[in-house]
């Protein structure tokens, strides 16, 4: 019995490839052979810990170039992620209990969040300009639908979103009836989501253009119709992107950043849903017109 109790601490320590007293540093560009345990000191991680990082009576500081591939646990200390990457659970164990968080890697930084928001802005401007010149007539229909039937568009967008999953199941079942259809099920699913994404994107662009009309006001006498539509579209996209850019700028302040992100996501969701419903209405109207013309 005494022997088993004596061997238990040794067995626990054997899980660590490095056990040290006093503060230790994992230098940049180096990789530990496994988990690391530091007693009565801090563990500064600039390199790569190929396992868990544990301190007793000290802090774990993961610097921007650092990476912990397992859990980071600080007994009577604090785990501080200062721009590095922690791929496991984060635990602060102290007299007040255990504070446990789940880490999904590198925390978002203000600069990276701003960069992502600006990349999305540029992408939307490019896609919007392309849609305006290559699908301008259809986009005009969507814009008119959003302007004249906003409430109906929002309602149909919600219903369309709810029916997405049943429609996908129906598509898979229909394709599974034949042997050839089974082979093409993955392509059908991918095509379904591509079409769904295209409808949502086109609908959002339509809502953005309506928003741009409200923001920009009347055009000048010398402005061409194409230039006017482009100005409206760009103004609307900038308006929605500004919400995300402001939210990204407050990433350093978690509470304000979270509130602003929720606000931006809510407004964007309403815009996309309304646009999605407008695309459904516009497509149905176009189908009716073509059917009447064919008759």
Number of domains: 2
Query: Could you give the distance between the termini?
Result: 93 Å
- The helix-strand sequence is HEEEEEEEEEEEEEHHHHHHHH
Strand proportion, as a percent range, falls in 15-25%
Layout of helices and strands:
Layout: H1 2-13, E1 16-21, E2 24-26, E3 35-39, E4 43-45, E5 48-49, E6 53-56, E7 60-62, E8 67-68, E9 72-75, E10 79-81, E11 85-86, E12 89-94, E13 97-102, H2 110-134, H3 136-148, H4 150-162, H5 164-175, H6 179-183, H7 185-216, H8 225-249, H9 254-294
Parallel strand pairs: 1-3, 2-4, 3-6, 4-7, 5-8, 6-9, 7-10, 8-11, 9-12
Antiparallel strand pairs: 12-13
Helix pairs in contact: 2-8, 3-7, 3-9, 4-9, 5-7, 7-8, 7-9, 8-9
In short:
With 295 residues, the chain is of the alpha/beta class.
Q: How would you characterize the overall build of this protein?
A:
Helix content is 60%, strand content 17%. The protein has 295 residues and is an alpha/beta fold. The chain folds into 2 domains: 2-102; 110-294, no CATH class.
Key words describing this protein structure:
295 residues; alpha/beta; six-stranded mixed β-sheet; 13 strands; disordered N terminus
């Amino acid at each position: 019995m005494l022997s088993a109790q004596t061997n238990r601490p040794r067995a626990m320590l054997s899980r660590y490839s490095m056990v040290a007293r006093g503060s230790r540093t994992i230098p940049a560009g180096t990789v530990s052979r496994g988990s690391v345990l530091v007693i009565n000191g801090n563990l500064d991680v600039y390199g790569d810990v190929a396992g868990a990082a544990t301190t007793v009576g000290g802090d774990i500081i993961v610097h921007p170039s650092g990476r912990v591939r397992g859990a980071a646990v600080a007994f009577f200390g604090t785990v501080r992620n200062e721009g590095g990457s922690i791929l496991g659970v984060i635990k602060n164990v102290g007299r007040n209990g255990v504070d446990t968080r789940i880490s999904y890697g590198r925390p978002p930084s203000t600069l990276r969040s701003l960069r992502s928001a600006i990349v999305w802005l540029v992408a939307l401007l490019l896609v919007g300009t392309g849609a305006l010149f290559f699908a301008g007539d259809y986009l005009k229909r969507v814009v008119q639908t959003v302007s004249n039937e906003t409430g109906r568009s929002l309602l149909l967008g919600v219903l369309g979103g709810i029916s997405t999953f049943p429609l996908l199941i129906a598509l898979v079942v229909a394709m599974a009836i034949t042997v050839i259809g089974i082979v093409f099920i993955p392509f059908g699913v991918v095509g379904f989501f591509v079409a769904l994404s295209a409808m949502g994107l086109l609908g959002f662009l339509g809502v953005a253009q309506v928003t741009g009309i409200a923001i920009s006001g009347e055009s000048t006498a010398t402005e061409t119709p194409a230039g006017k539509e482009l100005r409206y579209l760009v103004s609307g996209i900038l308006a929605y992107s500004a919400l995300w850019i402001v939210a990204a700028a407050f990433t350093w302040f978690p509470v304000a950043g979270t509130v602003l992100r929720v606000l931006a996501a809510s407004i964007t969701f309403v815009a996309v849903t309304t646009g999605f419903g407008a695309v459904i209405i516009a497509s149905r109207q176009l189908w009716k017109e073509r059917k009447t013309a064919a008759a």
